[in-house]
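Field reference: sequence -> structure
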Amino acid sequence: MKEMKSLLAVYGLLVVVLPAAASPFTDPAQWNSYDPGANGVGVDPDGFQGGAFDGKYIYFAPSEHDRNVTGGEILRFDTTADFSSIASWTTYDPGPSIAYDGAVFVDGYVYFSPVQEGASAGTQVLRYDTAGSFTAAGSWDTFDVSAIGAIGGYRDLVVADSFIYFVPNWDGGQPGKHGQVLRYDTTAPFNQALSWETMDPNINDGYFGAVVAGDYVYFVAHHNGTDYFAQMLRYNTTLPFDDLGSWDAHTPSGQAPAPGRGYAGGVFDGAFVYFLPMARPETNTVDTVLRYDVSADFTDDNSWDTVEAPCVEGFTGAVYDGQRYIYLTGGLDAPATGIQVQYDTLGPFEDSESWVCFDPGESGVGDDPEGYMGALFDGRFVYFVPWDNGSERHGEVLRFDTHCQDGPNLVCNGDFELGNTCFTSEYNYTDTDLAPGTTYAVTSDPDALHWMDLCDYGDHTMGTGLMMAVNSAQGDDPTDLTLWTQTMPVRSAQGYSLSLWVSTWSFAAPAHLHVLVNDVELGELDAADVCGEWQQFAFNWYSGTAATAELRIYSDLNGGADFALDDISFHATCETDCNGNGVADVEDVADCSGAPWCSDCNDNGIPDECDIADCTGASSCDDCNHDGVPDGCETDCDGDGLIDDCDPDIDNDGVLNDDDVCDYTPAAALVEPDGSVLGDVDGDCDVDLVDFGLLQSRFTGPGCSD
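Structure field:
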């Protein structure tokens, strides 16, 4: 049952997972890459490790811009803009030469985790205020945690509730590992020592990455200075941070010492925590992905299982899309690889078909997209963080478009191979006699259950499997009885596709069927009048605000229509209908004539009203003036994230609009206390040649004469 846990977490019920179709993950058209530095952005934006997403921008954390040269420029990408445009990318060098490993976004701030400064462990935590200008020094702040006795040298950071946890790794020595966890209370002042605390459980040293799952923070075991180890550390966030009783650890069976180069990083899919084998080529071993079932006992070996890492010998990071797939970065294998991996959490963990590998560079994507250190997700795109391509540190960001990946089949036992289960029917079940009306059987041979000599044929799935054979109403039998129904949860504002295969198993009149979802008819269909011929019928449905979908099929013929159903499927499609009007979003946008319910000012394929309704705080999708247009499409004169209609100081000159003589002061202008521009003679709020001429005339014009 382990392979079904992720399914339960996402959909809340058990369904049958059908074999995966060809994955868009291996379609080069879904991939692209861009190297901002090579196109003139910044000075030398290369060599990143991890990053963060704030709802609009992706931040890449600088580690080494050249090999063994720490520090570099923070790289930022505007996800609402063109990926391949120079204007979409910005850099900022915070100085000094500190290597960071990972970043997180919390309540308007982006925090960067210091791992190394020169030859010492990094102790200066960096913070960016997203309300300020990215390139302004005043938007940035640091706190040296050595002031509270923290050791530094952190490999990643994670957020649980209002706290940030920094993962202990290196103390600056050789090998110099430590286990002192650093924690910051984000509700408290950043630069006050009392906002910070440390705790060393004295269980082991040298962790690499962490994962938050429920009430626990899991610290990923790596190397303690002597050996690679797999004793995973766990902290219960509901208990005191400084209490040893809040911490426990476990080494799963067969994991001592850890295989290969140990573990580095992890990811949580709602049901399992995955610990990733470190990608290093010199071991020449095949490493394993380690997985823990969070609903089971942490210290019980039965709660853990492993699978051989596919395609590459290890990974350097992973990200979960929140619905189905985990994307794993195969970064440093032999010595750098362009192979990236997608794992389907709805498939069996140990089944190779659940894992898909792809090297975009080998299929013509980008220049040399190899060697990545982590992955980030913005709700649609997965960004692979550039690190080292085997020759040098690089900055070629690799991106995969997750859009248009159809969901799994939500119908339980749609192929009937499990027998008479998972669905309900108002017909009478039989396994011996299909002659009476309103009866059905789950069988491989309807002919064997009827006294007449009927056509002999197999099911649609395999030809030798099971189908649902039905004898419809006869005589006084009602004609609106449900012959098959099943209910499953669905996502709101989502498009779905319903498909079923129908055949006729006798020489009577072919069946006429009705297909409904939530008592709304999708359509009608007629079975073939050729005995034994399977036909497929498909219907589209948009969920609107519905949380569940009740699928129902009934036959309205009275007179012995004999037919069979097989391979019923119902799955989410690439299309969405965010406003629930029964029209796909892409069609709304394409046919829009300026109406607010279909306009798409940012060209993201989603109507503006849905961008606003689904906004989670990002300034780009908010609608502060309630005009139906996302703020990201409106004018923001001073670039402070507040559009002019909502900004109390439009030009950011320190004078509020109500008192400001000039609402739109040029950025470089000198401002008087009333907001007027120094040197603006003609009162147009700008200093130009006209003003110069007026000034000149005052000083050089004719004077008074006797």
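Note: The mean pLDDT is 86.
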